[in-house]
């Protein structure tokens, strides 16, 4: 059975909860380093009809597909979702912020967001004096010269950034561990079109997808950062966690997967930032310390996660040396030993 078929069978057993179509799937606030400037950020996940790739199986670690709508929200519903999030900007009295748009799919896929609504959303954000930049996530196959120009036509010169869940520069790992359905060449093509139009590029990488040892996963990300650096201004490294209704969850339940150690990402950031001082590198360790999340020991996970967030905002490599713990010795042992366990976790 193919990996995609296995993922699809797991998906078909999940129930998607329905939600009023005029409510976003989620939105939240935080801070981010916007090419050298620390700004407030509102992240909004639009509730759309969902990722076409995820609906036919899709990525092995992705539970975001269950945030999608049970139907197809109308154009006015999508605009109402934006209004609900912007009300909170008002309530929080934010004066300078960046807005990140996600859809649990692709902002540029017209089956999720029509061309007209896409422009209405961007125009509304660009016309808002408080908003200094917009980021939108998409799969690379939807990036065309026409779509880029169409987006920019309403941006009033404000910076626009496309973000891609590239995960790795290795086509083999992206295909056989993640089942992503696009290649590094697709990403490079999209980044080049974006660059020609003056649109920034952010690449999301994924530390430790299935079937890689801790050491292989680290090496893969370090190589991927080198490969991606010529095409992206920002690289954000997601740490694979165990989401409900995913192939990764099945492996984890069978004790065949452990999320990455936080020491691994600390080391990756230190090495990569030294090599690429002008590249914005970040990592938000979602679920850090939880049994389904990336973690060290119980004592230090929370502090190391805070340290990673601090580095992501400041880009100051010295912040990565502010926390230490004895469990680092255990992590070093795991790096030596898990090559001989064929990917099965040693410690759980
Ligand atoms: S990770 Fe992205 S491309 Fe993959 S199934 Fe999820 S939403 Fe779709
Ligand atoms: Zn520890």
Automatic annotation (TrEMBL):
The keyword Iron-sulfur appears for this protein: yes
Keyword S-adenosyl-L-methionine assigned: yes
All copies of domain Elp3/MiaA/NifB-like radical SAM core, residue ranges: 41-271
Entry's transmembrane regions: none
GO MF annotation terms: 4 iron, 4 sulfur cluster binding; catalytic activity; metal ion binding
Pfam families attached to this UniProt entry: Radical_SAM
GO cellular component: cytoplasm
Key words, A-Z: 4Fe-4S, Iron, Iron-sulfur, Metal-binding, S-adenosyl-L-methionine
PANTHER family reported for this sequence: ELONGATOR COMPLEX PROTEIN 3, HISTONE ACETYLTRANSFERASE-RELATED
Name of the protein in question: Elp3/MiaA/NifB-like radical SAM core domain-containing protein
Organism of this sequence: Methanimicrococcus blatticola
């Amino acid at each position: 059975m193919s990996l995609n078929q296995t993922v699809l069978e797991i998906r078909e057993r999940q129930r998607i909860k329905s939600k009023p179509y005029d409510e976003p799937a989620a939105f939240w606030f935080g801070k981010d380093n916007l090419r050298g400037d620390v700004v407030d950020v509102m992240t909004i996940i639009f509730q759309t009809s969902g990722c076409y790739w995820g609906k036919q199986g899709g990525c092995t670690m992705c539970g975001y597909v269950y945030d999608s709508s049970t139907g197809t929200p109308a154009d006015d519903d999508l605009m109402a979702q934006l209004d609900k999030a912007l009300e909170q900007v008002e309530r929080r009295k934010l004066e300078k912020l960046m807005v990140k748009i996600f859809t649990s799919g692709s902002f540029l896929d017209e089956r999720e967001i029509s061309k007209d609504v896409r422009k209405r959303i961007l125009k509304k954000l660009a016309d808002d004096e408080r908003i200094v930049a917009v980021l939108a996530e998409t799969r690379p196959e939807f990036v065309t010269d026409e779509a880029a120009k169409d987006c920019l036509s309403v941006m009033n010169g404000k910076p626009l950034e496309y973000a891609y869940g590239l995960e790795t520069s290795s086509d083999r790992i992206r295909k056989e561990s993640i089942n992503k359905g696009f290649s590094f060449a697709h990403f490079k093509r999209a980044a080049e079109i974006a660059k020609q139009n003056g649109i920034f590029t952010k690449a999301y990488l994924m530390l430790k997808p299935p079937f890689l040892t801790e050491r292989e996963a680290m090496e893969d990300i370090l190589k991927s950062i080198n490969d991606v650096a010529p095409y992206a201004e920002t690289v954000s490294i997601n740490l694979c966690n165990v989401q409900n209704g995913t192939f990764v969850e099945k492996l984890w339940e069978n004790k065949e997967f452990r999320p990455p150690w936080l020491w691994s990402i600390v080391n990756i950031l230190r090495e990569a930032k030294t090599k690429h001082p002008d590249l914005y590198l970040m990592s938000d360790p979602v679920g850090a310390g939880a049994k389904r999340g990336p973690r060290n020991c119980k004592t230090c996970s929370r502090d190391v996660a805070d340290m990673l967030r601090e580095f992501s905002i400041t880009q100051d490599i010295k912040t990565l040396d502010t926390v230490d713990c004895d469990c680092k010795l255990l992590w070093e042992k795991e790096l030596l030993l898990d090559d001989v366990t064929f990917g099965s976790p040693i410690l759980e």
